[in-house]
Write a structure and sequence with these properties.
The protein has 5 helices and 8 strands; from the N terminus they run E-H-E-H-E-E-E-E-H-E-H-E-H. With 209 residues, the protein is α/β, with parallel strands linked by helices.
Length: 209
């Protein structure tokens, strides 16, 4: 199928614990309203906070859409900035999900590497978006928390050879509104797509300018 449009899939999580309204899914729905421009097909999905659902849903999203980029968004009660996660981790999943389930192995992919990094340079994205004056504070992290966020990220990175990203957002109103988070996600994703297109353009070029 020849399609000139870029395909992007963005997920947010459903309710869990004290997060009866999950800021990540609200922010993703705001992003959907804004869109990523005429050249990008954007698909969004809500992900239940369940290990076994992630095991089936994330591979099916990659298979169904074959996106150039998949971005997962999660909420962190500790976050006060929009946080770009550099990598996903394979081990240490001890917390029960919303179905009171936890993997027996406490790992994501048995025999997989301990850590998989995104091909996207999150430090660069952070600097570029901050410089663009999006009005939201950004930071970069190497620890997505060893819960469903980290688990989903690792699963996606493993399936896509690193062509995935994870963004943590703070709870709504602490300090940002849904609209501000949606605008921030849009700015971040557009920079990620720009960086990916440049890296693909440089594939056949030995000289880095």
């Amino acid at each position: 199928m020849d399609n000139d449009k870029i395909t992007v899939v963005v997920t947010g999580f459903g309710p869990f614990g004290g997060h009866t309204v999950n800021a990540s899914w609200v922010a993703v729905q705001e992003l959907q309203k804004l869109g990523l421009g005429p050249d990008v097909e954007l698909y969004v999905h809500e992900v239940p906070v369940e290990y076994q659902t992630v095991n089936s849903l994330v591979p099916s999203l990659w298979e169904q859409y074959r996106p150039q980029l998949m971005v997962h968004v999660g909420v962190s009660g500790l976050a006060t900035t929009v946080t770009l996660e550099k990598c996903g981790h394979n081990y240490g999943y001890e917390r029960l999900d919303t179905s009171s389930f936890c993997p027996d192995s406490q790992c994501c992919v048995e025999g997989g590497p301990e850590c998989i990094h995104s091909v996207i340079d999150m430090d660069s994205i952070c600097k570029r978006v901050t410089a663009s004056g999006v009005g939201v504070s950004l930071s970069v992290s190497k620890d997505a928390g060893r819960y469903l966020c980290d688990y989903t990220y690792y699963t996606s990175l493993n399936l896509s050879r690193g062509h995935a990203a994870f963004i943590h957002v703070p709870p709504l109103g602490k300090p940002y509104s849904a609209e501000e988070l949606g605008r921030a996600l849009r700015a971040i994703l557009l920079e990620m797509l720009e960086v990916l297109s440049q890296s693909q353009g440089n594939k056949h070029c030995d000289h880095r300018h």
